[in-house]
TrEMBL record:
<dbReference type="GO" id="GO:0004467">
    <property type="term" value="F:long-chain fatty acid-CoA ligase activity"/>
</dbReference>
<comment type="similarity">
    <text>Belongs to the ATP-dependent AMP-binding enzyme family.</text>
</comment>
<dbReference type="InterPro" id="IPR020845">
    <property type="entry name" value="AMP-binding_CS"/>
</dbReference>
<keyword id="KW-0445">Lipid transport</keyword>
<dbReference type="GO" id="GO:0000166">
    <property type="term" value="F:nucleotide binding"/>
</dbReference>
<dbReference type="GO" id="GO:0005324">
    <property type="term" value="F:long-chain fatty acid transmembrane transporter activity"/>
</dbReference>
<dbReference type="GO" id="GO:0005886">
    <property type="term" value="C:plasma membrane"/>
</dbReference>
<keyword id="KW-0812">Transmembrane</keyword>
<keyword id="KW-1133">Transmembrane helix</keyword>
<feature type="domain" description="AMP-binding enzyme C-terminal">
    <location>
        <begin position="501"/>
        <end position="577"/>
    </location>
</feature>
<dbReference type="InterPro" id="IPR000873">
    <property type="entry name" value="AMP-dep_synth/lig_dom"/>
</dbReference>
<dbReference type="GO" id="GO:0044539">
    <property type="term" value="P:long-chain fatty acid import into cell"/>
</dbReference>
<keyword id="KW-0547">Nucleotide-binding</keyword>
<dbReference type="Pfam" id="PF13193">
    <property type="entry name" value="AMP-binding_C"/>
</dbReference>
<keyword id="KW-0276">Fatty acid metabolism</keyword>
<keyword id="KW-0443">Lipid metabolism</keyword>
<keyword id="KW-0436">Ligase</keyword>
């Protein structure tokens, strides 16, 4: 009997070992698929349940279950679920009385990362009012004017809630706001400026009794919950309509990554953006967990914060992880409790350095868009991937990669007018099928931009897909890799150039700290030639020869940036994404650009200062590109 038991055990171990060899990610796939199915069942339940069960209801249930549990840690103070609930009720009653808010009235929020942001949003949710989240931390004067125009025009908001630090900026645009009939509420107890209403004094006098659910009786899963503005990397921001269904789906990302109610989540990304609000705050409410909130990201304070507040889950986006890797090394870097990092946009080399330097942190790289209907999560330890293809995900949220003409900036179609699917390993445009399970709502007050994102007759006549505008690749192991954004990728010498790949090569040069790569037009030439705006490592000069050797060694001739622009800093969005539009428009004319410019000279085998003489020679085609 013992012999048979030994044989069976041995065979089982061999079988498991064989399966592990044949399917190295089987365990992670199964775990993720099971989690996804459970979350999918919950979402279906929320769609059908009456009365509608929103994320607000989830928060209220948590406040009833554990009112004394800490919800938000902020600047040395803890705010419990019960306390935030009562404060949001006071805020709701104050707004209701002062502004006569009713269900469906959009309210624009210009609030910083502080607890008042959270309970003001909860207050609006209790009144059934969608919030337009549109604060850039640098919005003052003209910028605030533009932002308020977006919020009030696109979302039809007639009320504006502003944090006290923006009072001076609001005063500058107050005449315009008055003309538009916009009522301004300042989160302050006093204000001597006529036309600006204070709110904190009214909140302090209001009752904290629960509000009737009748105030939001008509809100359902397809109702608008939020307006979140795109970051504006390739143009002006657009107000993405975020329904309650989308809020639920985004809040499930933490659960899909294995986050529990016992975790402590660090939010230092802006709450006005989908990452901080939907994945961070909404996800924390869905989990019933504690969050540590910081006004803004600080690389120097990050790990001290993690240790002090026992952070177990961190969030990153864009360049934040690179900022951490560029910070001075300390002996205590691995002395923390962080086990998971959730975010997107990290480069492969930074990812490797981050894990090696700060410990065995599970990096959960995402691919998603605020307005999109398709997303991925890399739930494995595969560095560089943004997700995996699996049959369950594809069944519920149909998508495909299609061939895309970079030069014409349009999908490649066959003789029947249908799109052509990209082959495995080939870069293609990601499109998500628009269905009841995966809708695309569009942008508020912008039918033209909404229609541009709709792609018809993709795989069969009459079908409708969401055009992500992103180029991705699926490899033989079913991993998904982000390649570039349409418009960022450019075509030169008949070849496609992915700006992200060129940037990765440039930042390997010791003197280059950051690189923003784009294509510029050259008179008399087809396509766009490569150019990069870079900032230098502190204390370093631009290494002309070293940079030349780097790009020649690792990039084909057509992908090498022929022009380098040295800047003191790169223009970023509020979520650390690089802006390109102005750089593309300015081109490489040294007579118009004050920054130092360099030109890749293949004859001298180095980068040389770009003079007006060289510029004229390029324009007259004496210098061939």
């Amino acid at each position: 009997m013992f012999i048979w038991f030994t044989v069976v055990t041995g065979l089982a171990i061999l079988s498991l070992s064989f399966l592990k060899t044949l399917f190295p990610y089987l365990s992670e796939d199964c775990t993720y698929i099971l989690r996804s199915i459970k979350l999918g069942i919950r979402l279906v339940k929320y769609k059908k349940i009456k009365p509608f069960y929103s994320l607000l209801d989830c928060f209220l249930d948590a406040a009833r279950r554990h009112p004394s549990k800490t919800f938000v840690k902020f600047e040395g103070r803890d705010y419990s679920y019960g306390e935030v609930d009562k404060q949001s009720s006071r805020t709701a009653r104050a707004l209701q009385a002062a502004a006569a808010l009713k269900e469906g009235d959009p309210v624009a929020l210009f609030l910083a990362n502080e607890p008042s942001f959270i309970w003001t949003w909860l207050a609006l949710a209790k009144l059934g009012c969608p919030a337009a989240l549109d604060l850039r931390q640098h919005d003052t004067g003209p910028q605030l004017h533009c932002a308020t125009q977006r919020s009030t025009t696109l979302c039809r908001a007639e009320w504006l809630s502003v944090f006290a630090e923006l009072q001076d900026a609001v005063e500058e645009v107050l005449p315009t706001l008055r003309e538009q009939g916009i009522t301004v509420f300042l989160l302050s107890e006093t204000c001597s400026v006529q036309g600006i209403n204070t709110l904190l004094d009214k909140i302090s006098l209001a009752s904290d009794e629960p509000l009737s659910k009748d105030l939001r009786a008509n809100v359902n899963i397809r109702s608008t919950a939020l307006y979140i503005y795109t970051s504006g990397t390739t143009g002006l921001p657009k107000a993405a309509v975020v329904t309650h269904e989308r809020v639920w789906a985004a809040s499930f990302i933490q659960a899909a990554c294995g986050i529990t109610a016992d975790d402590i989540f660090y939010i230092n990304l802006p709450l006005y953006h989908s990452a901080g609000f939907l994945i961070g705050m909404a996800g924390a409410i869905e989990r019933g967990m504690t969050i540590f909130l910081r006004r803004k990201f600080s690389a120097s304070q990050f790990w001290d914060d993690c240790r002090k507040y026992d952070v177990t889950v961190m969030q990153y986006i864009g360049e934040t992880m690179r900022y951490l890797c560029n910070s001075p090394k300390k002996d205590s870097e691995k002395n923390h409790k962080v086990r998971v990092a959730i975010g997107n946009g990290v480069r492969t080399d930074i990812w490797s350095e981050f894990v090696n330097r700060f410990g065995n942190i599970q990096v959960r790289e995402l691919y998603a868009a605020t307005e999109g209907n398709i997303g991925f999560i890399n739930y494995t330890s595969k560095i560089g991937a943004v997700g995996r293809v699996n049959f369950v995900h594809r069944f519920f949220f149909p998508y495909t990669l299609i061939k895309f003409d970079i030069e014409k900036e349009e999908p490649v179609r066959n003789s029947e007018g249908l799109c052509i699917e990209a082959a495995r390993g080939e870069t293609g445009l990601l499109v998500g099928k628009v269905t009841q399970r995966s809708p695309f709502v569009g942008y508020a007050g912008n039918k033209q931009q909404t229609e541009k994102k709709r792609l018809r007759d993709v795989l069969k006549k009459g079908d409708l897909y969401f055009n992500t505008g992103d180029l991705l690749r699926f490899d033989e192991e079913n991993f998904v890799y982000f390649q570039d954004r349409v418009g960022d990728t450019f075509r030169w010498k008949g070849e496609n150039v992915a700006t992200s790949e060129v940037a990765d090569i440039l930042t390997m040069v010791p003197c280059i700290l950051e690189a923003n790569v784009y294509g510029v037009k050259v008179e008399g030439h087809e396509g766009r030639i490569g150019m990069a705006a870079v900032i230098l490592t502190e204390g370093e000069d631009f290494d002309c020869s070293g940079t030349y050797k780097q790009v020649v060694s690792y990039l084909p001739a057509y992908a090498r940036p022929r022009f380098i622009r040295i800047q003191a800093c790169l223009e970023m969005t509020g979520t650390f994404k690089m802006k390109k539009v102005r750089l593309v428009e300015e081109g490489f004319n040294p007579a118009l650009i004050q920054d130092p410019l360099y030109f890749l000279d293949p004859e001298q085998k180095t980068y040389v200062p770009l003079t007006e003489e060289i510029y004229r020679a390029i324009a007259s085609r004496e210098i061939k590109l």
